[in-house]
Specification:
The protein is an alpha/beta fold and 236 residues long. Helices cover 47% and strands 22% of the residues. The protein is built from seven helices and seven strands. A hairpin with a 6-residue loop joins strand 2 (93-97) and strand 3. The model has no long low-confidence stretch (mean pLDDT 78).
Length: 236
C-alpha cells in the first residue's frame, strides 16, 4: 500500500510542476489519496487527521525534490565551457591560445618587469568586461528596436592594494552611443544602465563596475563629437 501512495504522490507532483492539469483535477487526486489513507494502516496508526497531514507533507517533499532535480538539470543543460591555454615563450611573456582562434601574444605590464606594447592580463580582464557590456547592449538594443548610429565603450580598470593584495578594485565603463531619433535618447540611457546588470562577465567578478553613459542624437552638437559614419550623417 505505501508503494501505491508513493506512486500517486509522484503523479500529483508531475501534474503540479508541469502545470498540465487543472487545479480541480489536482485537488480531486489529492482527495483520493486522503480517502485511501484514512482507511489503511497509516490511518490506524496515526488517526485520520494526522494521516492527511502525513500525506500533505509527503507531497511537499516530493515536489521540493522534483524542483531541485529540475533546476540542476536546467543548470547542466545551459552550461558552456570555454577553454584556453597559455604557452610560455620567454621572460615574462607568453601566447594565449584557443582552438580555432588567432594566437594572442601577452606579457606582464612594464610596471611588473614585462614588455611594452603587448596585451597584458590586466588589459584582457578590463577588455572582457567592456566587450561583454557592448555585446549585451547591442542585444538589448536589437530587442528594443533601438536604432544606433554608432556605439563605443571606453573602459578603465584601477589596480589597487587591498589588505596587502593587489587586485583590480574598480572598472569604469564610459559607453558612448549615437541614436538616430531624438526621442530615443532617454531610452538609450535606460538601456545602457540595464546592460550593466545583464552583463554576465560583470556579474561574475568582484571588481566594482561603474557605468557612465553618454548618449547623443546625431544632430545635437557634442564635445567630443561622436563619430558618425558619412552614410548615416544628415544631409546638409
Amino acid at each position: 500500500m505505501p508503494h501505491l501512495i508513493q506512486k500517486k504522490l509522484r503523479a500529483i507532483a508531475v501534474i503540479y510542476l508541469d502545470r498540465r492539469r487543472s487545479f480541480c483535477r489536482l485537488w480531486d487526486s489529492m482527495q483520493q489519496i486522503f480517502s485511501l489513507v484514512r482507511n489503511q494502516s497509516i490511518s490506524d496508526r496515526l488517526g485520520a487527521g494526522k494521516a492527511e497531514l502525513f500525506c500533505r507533507e509527503a507531497l511537499a517533499r516530493n515536489v521540493r525534490l522534483s524542483r531541485t532535480r529540475r533546476r540542476r538539470a536546467m543548470r547542466n543543460e545551459h552550461e558552456i565551457t570555454f577553454t584556453t591555454e597559455v604557452q610560455w615563450t620567454e621572460g615574462r611573456s607568453g601566447e594565449l591560445r584557443s582552438n580555432g582562434l588567432p594566437t594572442l601574444e601577452m606579457a606582464a605590464p612594464p610596471e611588473f618587469h614585462g614588455r611594452e606594447n603587448t596585451w597584458t592580463p590586466e588589459h584582457l580582464y578590463v577588455g572582457s568586461v567592456a566587450s561583454c557590456f557592448m555585446l549585451t547592449s547591442l542585444a538589448l538594443a536589437e530587442h528594443a528596436k533601438l536604432v544606433l548610429e554608432s556605439f563605443s565603450v571606453k573602459a578603465e580598470g584601477k589596480l589597487g592594494n587591498v589588505e596587502g593584495r593587489r587586485q583590480i578594485t574598480e572598472i569604469v565603463l564610459t559607453p558612448t552611443a549615437v541614436v538616430s531619433r531624438i526621442e530615443d535618447v532617454g531610452r538609450a540611457e535606460t538601456l545602457l544602465v540595464k546592460a550593466e546588470r545583464s552583463c554576465f562577465i560583470a556579474a561574475s567578478i568582484k571588481s566594482r563596475v561603474v557605468v557612465l553613459p553618454r548618449v547623443y542624437h546625431r544632430r545635437l552638437p557634442a564635445y567630443p563629437c561622436p563619430v558618425v559614419s558619412p552614410a548615416s550623417a544628415p544631409a546638409a
